[in-house]
Amino acid sequence: MLRPRYLESSLLLLAVACQSSGLTPLARPFGGIGSNPHVNVFGSLDRPVEQSSSSLKMGFLEDWISATDESTMKKQNEKYLKDLQVRVERINAMEPSVEELSDEELAAKTVEFQQRIARNEATLDDLLEEAFAVVREAAWRVLEQRHYDVQLIGGMALHDGKLAEMATGEGKTLVATLPCYLNALRPNKTSFVVTVNDYLARRDAEKMGQVHKFLGLTVGLIQGGMKEEERKKNYQCDVVYVTNSELGFDYLRDHLSYTIQGTVLGEAGQLDGFCVVDEADSVLIDEARTPLIISRQIPAPENKYRLAKQIADNLRPNVHYTVDLKNKNVVLNQKGYRDTEKALGIESLFMPTSKGDTAWAPFVSNAVKAKELFNKDVEYTVLFDPLTGDKRGIGIIDAFTGRVLEGRRWSDG
Ligand SMILES: Nc1ncnc2c1ncn2[C@@H]1O[C@H](COP(=O)(O)OP(=O)(O)OP(=O)(O)O)[C@@H](O)[C@H]1O
Ligand SMILES: [Mg+2]
Question: What does pTM read for this prediction?
Fold first, then answer.
């Protein structure tokens, strides 16, 4: 097949590369975004500044600052891209000699790079161009896909820990192979490819994993429902394909473990390596609105829920409680408490009625909240087991994407 050397792809969606070292804060498991300036690799910022009289009075300073920011950013971006283009040309120049290598010689390049890094003879940046040329050749031999020049630029931006925006269908999956290979060359460092669902993780591991394997790296895949041992084995690979929620929950569980043996993510749950986030808008913005919460499941007192629902159905808004739509909350008033206590025949909603029991207050207030604020198939849906058809629980629906957020629970029950 003829190599498509001169084809140019335009631009594509959103992917993020982040570097983390050691323990990173839970709120930003792959820290570094904040510390790395955001570069819109192909964006243009040609909006003129309007200075209406009102902007002179009210928003002049803001307009002036944002205009300065925009032109500075644009200049920086152009310079950055120009530098990357020079590197692309150097990578292209290496192509004839890399093409000459046999499969074994190409794979041996990985060992050579690893040794040079281990001996401190070269940094990742020194190796970038040759490593990218090697990955491009491997992808051509294994998948018959040769990285376009813009895909090399995308790979370099990700290696720099930046945000690369690429439109749908333009080959982000292939782009990720470049920085992931390069960063996995460091001893004991993993490259994570984080994506939004198990299907994509498997698809990418099976397809793109072939390129890494051809070059002698190990490839791991994490899927929902995997046992601890299997997870541990897969996380030890050089390149790991995983969803954001699996990785997030493994990170949280590792931090609850009392022993190193009980962790799956390497030493004491430390995330040390490199990470590319595919579909970054969904992972880092939409899904990040619902925090991952890890909590112990306690047996649900079914009777209490049923009774609380009956009571909630009889309580009336603005008589027994007020609804705070803005904060998605419901507050019972004095009459609400008194009537509920009377109906239940108890002295206080806040005291357990017997030893080992829990107070009624959270049951009643959650039941009223469910009645007023949570609608079936809008905020949540009932999940069924695909094999038996039995109900298996409730799934929270993501307000932005309409997708069910598997494994998530609301924080107050
Ligand atoms: N350099 C290339 N040479 C040949 N085919 C390519 C190349 N890059 C990508 N493709 C093909 O383009 C198609 C789209 O690629 P991919 O799924 O990675 O796009 P994407 O940018 O991730 O899109 P989406 O936003 O839909 O996830 C795939 O069939 C892929 O094999
Ligand atoms: Mg994709």
Answer: 0.68
- Residue 411, classed as helix, strand or coil, is coil
The CATH number that domain 13-289 falls under is 3.40.50.300
Boundaries of CATH 3.40.50.300 in the chain?
13-289
Is the predicted pLDDT of residue 118 greater than 60, yes or no? Answer: yes
- Structure tokens given for 77: 């971006």
Q: What is the pLDDT of residue 3?
A: 56
Q: Tell me the backbone φ, ψ of residue 278, rounded to 5 degrees.
A: -80, 155
For 292-312, what is each residue's pLDDT tens digit? 877 766 666 788 889 999 999
| Best probe residue, ligand 1, of 16, 174, 195, 202 (max atoms within 8 Å of C-beta) | 174
Atom of ligand 1 nearest to the CA of 146: 1
Token pair listed for 34: 């904040």
pLDDT of residue 15: 36
Nearest-10 crossing angle of helices 149-159, 60-100:
120
**166 close to ligand 1 (CB < 6 Angstrom):** yes
Q: Which fold has domain 302-405?
A: Pre-protein croslinking domain of SecA (3.90.1440)
Supply the pLDDT for residue 270: 62
Going from the Cα of 98 to the center of ligand 1, the distance in angstroms, rounded, reads 24
State the span(s) of the chain assigned CATH 3.90.1440.10: 302-405
169: left (phi over 0), alpha (psi -120 to 50) or beta: left
